[in-house]
Amino acid sequence: QVHLGESGGGLVQPGGSLRLSCAASGFTFSSYAMSWYRQAPGKERELVAYINRNGGITNYADSVKGRFTISRDNAKNTVYLQMNSLQPEDTAVYYCKAERLDFPRRVYWGQGTQVTVSS
């Protein structure tokens, strides 16, 4: 059974840091590109960061460049999002996504973890 489980969210003050984790099971993790998305209240879900299958390629939304870092450990079937210098506008539910681009294409989503940045 496929499962993506996010953890590490919570309440943090502006300027603080959090590290999100997404543990995967039920599929060949190393065959999937991984991404973090977020969705704030009243807004559409947006891509935050992307990492390819072997971790050699990463991309970030302009709003988080220089503050967030995505990484993965294929031995642990886990993808991470290190978030530094957090701001209130980073408040959202953060989701991880697994995507297999080869045929047959597959996409899996986690349930999300809440990140709240507030003083």
Structural descriptors:
119 residues, seven-stranded mixed sheet, mainly beta, four-stranded antiparallel sheet
Can you describe this structure?
By secondary structure, this protein is mostly beta strands. The chain has strands at 3-7, 10-12, 18-25, 33-39, 46-51, 58-60, 68-73, 78-83, 92-100, 106-109, 113-117. The protein is globular and about 45 Å long. The strands form two sheets. Strands 2, 4, 5, 6, 9, 10 and 11 form a seven-stranded mixed beta sheet that branches. Strands 1-3-8-7 form a four-stranded antiparallel beta sheet, with no helix packed on it. The model has no long low-confidence stretch (mean pLDDT 97). It has no helices and eleven strands.
- Number of distinct helices: 0
Multimeric state: single chain
Shape: globular
Give, in order, the helices and strands: EEEEEEEEEEE
Low-confidence stretches: none
Beta content comes to over 45%
Radius of gyration: 14 Å
* Average predicted local confidence, pLDDT: 97
**Major sheet characteristics:** 7 strands, mixed
Report a brief summary of the structure.
With 119 residues, this protein is mainly β. It contains no helices and 11 strands.
